[in-house]
Write the structure tokens for this entry.
Amino acid sequence: MTFATETIQVSTGSRPGVFDLTSAVADFCRGRGDGLCTVFVPHATAGVAIIEVGAGSDHDLMTAIDELLPADDRWRHAHGSPGHGRDHVLPAFISPSVTIPVVDGRPTLGTWQSVVLVDTNRDNRERQVRLTFLG
Amino acid sequence: MTFATETIQVSTGSRPGVFDLTSAVADFCRGRGDGLCTVFVPHATAGVAIIEVGAGSDHDLMTAIDELLPADDRWRHAHGSPGHGRDHVLPAFISPSVTIPVVDGRPTLGTWQSVVLVDTNRDNRERQVRLTFLG
Amino acid sequence: MTFATETIQVSTGSRPGVFDLTSAVADFCRGRGDGLCTVFVPHATAGVAIIEVGAGSDHDLMTAIDELLPADDRWRHAHGSPGHGRDHVLPAFISPSVTIPVVDGRPTLGTWQSVVLVDTNRDNRERQVRLTFLG
């Protein structure tokens, strides 16, 4: 059994958005053989998704989140920036954990799949992402 | 390779809600070393999420679910209580499975993260949750 | 440590829908002992869910997706069929990866749980699903 884990830092700044983790995940898995890679965000206001990036879908995702979980004053959790309460609901729908099969040291992502951090929270400018390999 | 699995019982009563599993998960992982813990609900009308609890977000989540998947008569699946059909759609959006990295017997949850059972179904008062460790 | 992986083909045709993978998953796990099975779709416009099928919920899920992520012209990603942009947002909410505990070669699904491919994309008639066992 091989277990490895590493925490990387992602500078998300003060804008909500989608942050590409694909090459960090590929680098982490390289040389590790066969197994599972879990990408996990230890934050209560962010998620991890696998989507296409660079053709508008990252923007579309943020728009969909604004539509489905509006950043307004409906939320009981009312600390931080206005509407911040919805950032705390987000991870129930976009989980902070995703598991990717790894074959011969390579995540088996499809051609158009990227692993991304989804962060709607503008109050937190630095994020951690834990990468784990078990094989 | 270490594999361990255990099923716990959660009394959810007749109110929809969020039920904290964090300490059960921590207890289960204790002493098991490094690996992955999968929290899995073997029910078709519940999910598992990782969110902050105790500051309003558990309530906010239930409100968001009511908004996005209303418990009304729109659903084709029409057994059980009125609106129960939406309980069956819920697990597509809030998955019944979440995987958490474990380091040295400790789930690597962030400070504000709790593992919760999300149950909108008032017809089912007792739930099972399967905890699994592989490392 | 046992690692096994296999890619199956699913003919989804030109209609959006839910495609049952449960027996394929059960067949794949049979005889493999204890561990975790990850069901992973290497496509950017599909997800994997665990829901009840055959009592209307598969239809209800597609209706909910149409409601929450309408196939209209709001999306910036505008290749393919009209509304195709929403297919690219779907996997952020219905993840392409789900992990199921396996005990003694059997996925520990509940009575009413089926593993399904969720595919809203009518432009892609053949899909791959990667099954992975680690135990």
About this structure: The first strand of chain C starts at residue 3 and ends at 11.
